[in-house]
């Protein structure tokens, strides 16, 4: 029998992950990683080169998964002027995600249209049988703007092999990864050294100990007291859907 499992639902987690997404997009657009590498190499001439970049209000960002974290991310992106496209697993009305999502698509049948105009793809979907390999095979050939993938959801939405193929074939421009098909990441993985891959150690949600005490412990205590009292729990996982 499945046991009762709950997840964190407080707004603090959603805001932290939304900030990670915006930060990585700005970092990529402004070429700060390249500038830093020129600093390390003491490349004085290259370091002074101006980097042409797009502002956030010039970008279309596709957000995959519009739960609490996804909607918060869409809201933050919209606040910076981005055009936001949304993809959800189960059908819902567009009015349920307005005014933070400009266009909405559903499931695998809507994926091709969702991908067409995105400059960035932000994955915030959970790991379920319906999301495994969702961006695999050759589905990314339909992403005409060669988007950057920002994966802060689950790594199994695309295999390493399919990700490498998408990069090498030019279907996507780059990948920013905070989660992976295999964790820990094998030492021989191409991800460590690929010039168009940025990796972070699955910490997009993480903050200091004060945050953990204030949010995680507080929410656990409230849920535990509700459990003992026979009251409904917040963030209870549905074992049928997988999240």
UniProtKB/TrEMBL annotation:
One Pfam family here: 2-Hacid_dh_C
Domain of life: Eukaryota
Record's keyword annotation contains Transferase: no
Alphabetical keyword list: NAD, Oxidoreductase, Pyruvate
Regions crossing the membrane: none
GO molecular-function terms, A-Z: NAD binding; oxidoreductase activity
Domain D-isomer specific 2-hydroxyacid dehydrogenase NAD-binding: residue ranges: 34-203
Gene3D superfamilies, per the entry: NAD(P)-binding Rossmann-like Domain
Name by which UniProt lists this protein: Glyoxylate/hydroxypyruvate reductase A
Organism: Portunus trituberculatus (Swimming crab)
């Amino acid at each position: 029998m499945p046991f009762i499992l709950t997840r964190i639902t407080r707004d603090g987690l959603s805001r932290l992950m939304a900030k990670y997404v915006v930060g990585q997009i700005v970092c990529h657009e402004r070429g700060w990683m390249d500038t830093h590498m020129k600093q390390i190499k003491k490349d004085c001439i290259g370091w002074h080169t101006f980097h042409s970049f797009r502002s956030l209000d010039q970008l279309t960002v596709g957000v995959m998964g519009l739960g609490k974290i996804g909607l918060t991310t869409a809201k933050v992106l919209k606040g910076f002027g981005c055009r936001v496209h949304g993809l959800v697993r189960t059908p819902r009305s567009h009015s349920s995600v307005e005014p933070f999502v400009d266009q909405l698509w559903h499931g695998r049948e809507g994926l091709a249209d969702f991908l067409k105009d995105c400059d960035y793809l932000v994955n915030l979907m959970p790991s379920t049988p319906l999301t495994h390999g969702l961006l695999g095979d050759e589905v990314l050939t339909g992403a005409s703007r060669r988007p950057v993938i920002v994966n802060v959801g689950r790594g199994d939405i695309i295999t390493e092999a399919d990700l490498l193929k998408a990069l090498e074939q030019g279907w996507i421009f780059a990948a920013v990864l905070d989660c992976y098909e295999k964790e820990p990441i094998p030492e021989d993985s191409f991800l460590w050294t690929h010039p168009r891959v940025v990796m972070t150690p699955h910490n997009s949600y993480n903050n200091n100990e004060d945050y953990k005490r204030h949010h995680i412990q507080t929410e656990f205590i409230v849920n535990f007291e509700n459990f003992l009292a026979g009251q409904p729990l917040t963030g209870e996982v549905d074992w049928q859907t997988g999240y």
